Amino acid sequence: MEAKAETITTSTPPEAKPEGAKSLAITITSKAAEAAKKQLAKRGTPEAMIRLGIRGSGCSGFSYVIEFEDKEPRERDRVFLQDGVKFVVDKKSLLYLAGTQLDWEQKLMSQGFKFVNPNEKSTCGCGHSFTV
Question: Does residue 5 carry a pLDDT above 50?
Answer without folding.
Answer: yes
